[in-house]
Amino acid sequence: MKAFTIILSSALAGFCFTASAANPDNVAVYATEQSQGSMSIGGKDAYTKTFEVAVAKLSGDSIDLSKLCLKAYSPDKKEFKLDTVDEKLSAGTLKEGELVKGIAVFASKNDAVFKAALVKISDDCK
Question: From 44's CA, which of 2, 3, 60, 125 has a CA 20 to 30 Å away?
């Protein structure tokens, strides 16, 4: 019975890993914090964090940036979705050896976004 539980757990773990979002291979994302801010519109408030971001295709086939998105993460693994981004970072094709730079703004209903420290690129853009 114990062996069955271990095998089943391993199989489920493998399924979970394959179902998770993939980060494109051979793509580097360099991000530098630029500012923190907030906005209030008609009683709705949001906190923002802005990064200067550079995306580079290190090797391999070119990638379509419109099929990818940037996400910010805090050290405790909380994810923040993109609010505003320079078109250079979200459109066009990036070929091997090329680099594009722009601004990316992440927003949250609370100030937890201020802890965002890591920006990644993903093909899971839901």
Answer: 125
Residue 87: what are its φ and ψ, rounded to 5°?
-60, -30
Token pair 């853009």 is at which residue? 125
Main-chain dihedrals φ then ψ at residue 30, nearest 5 degrees? -110, 125
DSSP, res 109: S
The amino acid that residue 28 corresponds to is A
The total of other beta-carbon atoms located within 10 Å of residue 71's CB is 21
pLDDT tens, position by position, 86-115:
999 999 999 999 999 999 999 999 999 999
Model confidence pLDDT, tens digit, residues 51-91: 999 999 999 899 999 999 999 999 999 999 899 999 999 99
**pTM score over 0.85:** no
- From the CA atom positions of the chain, what is the Rg in Å? 18
CA atoms 13, 19, 24, 28: torsion sign: negative
Tell me the H-state helices in the chain: 2-19
